[in-house]
Amino acid sequence: MVIFLGNTLLDSISTFYNHPSYDTIRGYANQEKKELLYVYDEAIRELPPHSHILDLGCGNALAVHRLLKNQSYEYEGVDLSYRQIEYAQQKNPCHRYLLADFLKFSFRKNYYDLIFLRNVWHQIPSPEKEQLLMRCFSFLKPNGQLLIGQSRTPDASEPSCGEVSSIESVLSLLRNPMWNIPLTKQESKANAWVVLVETTRKEEFDVTT
After folding, report:
1. Do 143 and 198 form a contact (C-beta atoms < 8 A)?
2. Residues near 150 by Cβ (< 8 Å), separated by ≥ 6?
3. Share of the chain above pLDDT 90, in %
4. 33 has which bridge partners?
5. H/E/C letters for each residue in 90-141?
6. Cβ–Cβ contacts within 10 Å for residue 72, how many?
């Protein structure tokens, strides 16, 4: 939900998700496929206690918080919509939320165990996609994991960069020595997919963001 491509698209995204007609709780999306949420659940459950999770484009964060229930993880959610952030803070005040553009905000390097990019890929133009992956690499600890997923076909009214959001568009940018890809899953009928990657050989790469 947060991208940076000049003020026009950025403002349209912010306006769309802050508008009273947008349902803060349900949005315009169908419920996520159970098998895809299972992937997120597995990634979370394999983390050691007190791990750090960064959720980029968190929205109201309800789906993730259901998986985090009764866990000791330190969670940070980031979004451009103040209405979504306010609702997330109201429902789960024990976690941290930021109203920010995650392509520009300076997060801590080598700090996070797991990063989520959920349902935002269709709003990030190609040049910024590669930049974002490099930034995530720098934020993650050695062997840290990044989950990129889409649970639905984007609604036609949602702001978009106009590019097809597909699992292939993700994998084409991840096939390099910086990443290991232990899992991919796709539900073609629902246009739902998820890719789990982990950092590898971080000491060999000097990533400046």
Report:
1. yes
2. 118, 119, 121, 122, 165, 191, 192, 193, 194
3. 37
4. none
5. HHCCCCEEEECCCCCCCCCCCCEEEEEEECCHHHCCHHHHHHHHHHHHHHEE
6. 10
Domain boundaries, the chain: 6-204
Q: What is the pLDDT of residues 132-175, one digit of tens each?
A: 999 999 999 999 999 999 876 666 677 677 666 789 989 999 98
Give pairs for 103-110: CB < 8 Å, separation 24+: 103/2, 103/3, 103/4, 103/128, 103/131, 103/132, 103/135, 104/4, 105/78, 106/209, 107/54, 107/135, 107/139, 108/139, 109/138, 109/139, 109/209, 110/138, 110/139, 110/140, 110/141, 110/142, 110/202
Is the domain spanning 6-204 CATH 3.40.50.150? The answer is yes
Judge whether 72 and 49 are in contact, CB under 8 Å: yes
- Amino acid identity, residue 189? K
- DSSP bridge pairs for 148: 117, 195
